[in-house]
Amino acid sequence: MSEIVKIIKSKKFLVSFSLSLGITLSICVIIFMVIFFAAREEEPEPQAEAPESELFFGIRIPMPDGWVYVEPDEFPYPTQYSMLTGQRIFDEYAARRPLAVVVNNIRRALPQSGIASADIIYEMLAEGDITRLIAIFQSHFPDKIGSVRSARDYFIDFAYNHDALFIHHGSSPAGYDKIRTTRITNLDGGRLEGRVFWRDTSYPEWSFNTGTRPREHSSYTGREQLEAYLEAEEIRSNITEGAQYGFSFGEIPTESAGKAEHIIVPFSPNYTRTFVLDDGVYLAYNRDGEHLDADTQEQVSVSNVLIQLASMHVIAGDEAGRRSIRTVGSGNGFLATQGEYYDVTWEKSSIESPTRWYFADGTPLVLSAGKTWVCVFQTTGKVTLEELAPTEI
User: How far is CA 247 from CA 87, 157, 281, 332, 372, in A?
Assistant: First the structure.
């Protein structure tokens, strides 16, 4: 009898133990599943990388610390359109005053920093046979811009086209005279070195230039330094309301004058600017090949090329061979966009007023949305606008 009781008790123990173990395991499984599925819900879905070609619909957005990719529902959507590019831009950027930076373009100064971020680039001869650039920035202020070079008096006129802050390092005597008489807001590296400007005598490892960058080609500025100075000095940072400091954008309303898939602008016997149409934009080339940004290695590309024909001459008695270029008045030119070119005219009523552009029939100029390169070219020169030769396969 006692043996039967022992067996019964042992079976009850096993049943009780089994039930307890089963309940415990079930609870553990339930807890594990809750944790597992909660973790899956918190884990973000993998995001496909936006293609390089998508600017705001994908979305690649210029932010103060660089370009970022975001989805439309993850970020305040840009609702304004840039007066300089016709592309979407955030409210605080659409109203901010552009920068007009004198950028060195001599061979020993290449490659340039920040140049691929410029909304508009003006190019014209200085002295000798080398051009200088006036880079207009509004959509994105790069962390490093330069090298920055000295001003010429006619450079100031291009800054006034866009109500821009004029940024340079030194100037010709005529340039300083014009700065004083016009009272344009300017930041001079000769006065602000160490505060807004700094020196960098190095070249990128991939550059065709090697060794030490000469001092005259080593002045730089950038977003952080510029913004800090403008705030500290309480300098007006927004454009003046009511004036038109940009371009109009949309469909071209007139017939083209011919093909412009390959553009050659021979500024001098030793310096030619070339543009080649590629996938709807013009890639910029200089005498050494692709015109590249020093920091991104990105080739500069634009949607529009404007040729502004202007009379110019070497100033008599100027030992450096400096030039005078007539930017106030009127003249002719060409617009190249989307592989076609159009005859245009321009007029500027005063130094402080913006340049106005028109098609040959008097209709106000319309550009394709995107960046623009303006070649201020001598009236005695010859620009080539042609169709690209078929590529052999």
Answer: 11, 16, 18, 17, 10
Which tens digit of pLDDT belongs to each residue from 167-199? 999 999 999 999 999 999 999 999 999 999 999
Per-residue confidence band for 320, with pLDDT thresholds at 50, 70 and 90: confident
More confident residue, 326 or 55: 326
* pTM more than 0.90: no
**Of 166, 170, 137, which is closest to residue 235 (Cα–Cα)?**
166
Residue 139 C-alpha from the chain's centroid: 7
The span from the CA of 11 to the CA of 111, in Å, is 88
Rounded CA separation 339/250 (Å): 16
Phi, psi (5° rounding) for residue 329? 130, -135
Closest CA to 177 of 151, 197, 149, 196: 151
Confidence of residue 301 (pLDDT cuts 50, 70, 90): very high
What is the three-state SS of the chain?
CHHHHHHHHHHHHHHHHHHHHHHHHHHHHHHHHHHHHHHHHHCCCCCCCCCCCCCCCCCEEEECCEEEECCHHHCCCCCEECCCCCCEECHHHHCECCEEEEECCCHHHCCEECHHHCCEEEEEECCCCCEEEEEEECCCCCCCEECECCECCCHHHHHHCCCCEEEECCECHHHHHHHHHHCCCEEEHHHHECCCEEECCCCCCCCCCCCCCCHHHCEEECHHHHHHHHHHCCCCCECCCCCCCCCCECCCCCCCCEECCEEEEEEECCEEEEEEEECCEEEEEECCEECEECCCCCECEECEEEEEEECEEECCCCCCCCEEECCCEEEEEEEEECCEEEEEEEEECCCCCCCEEEECCCCECCECCCCEEEEEEECCCCCEEECCCCCCC
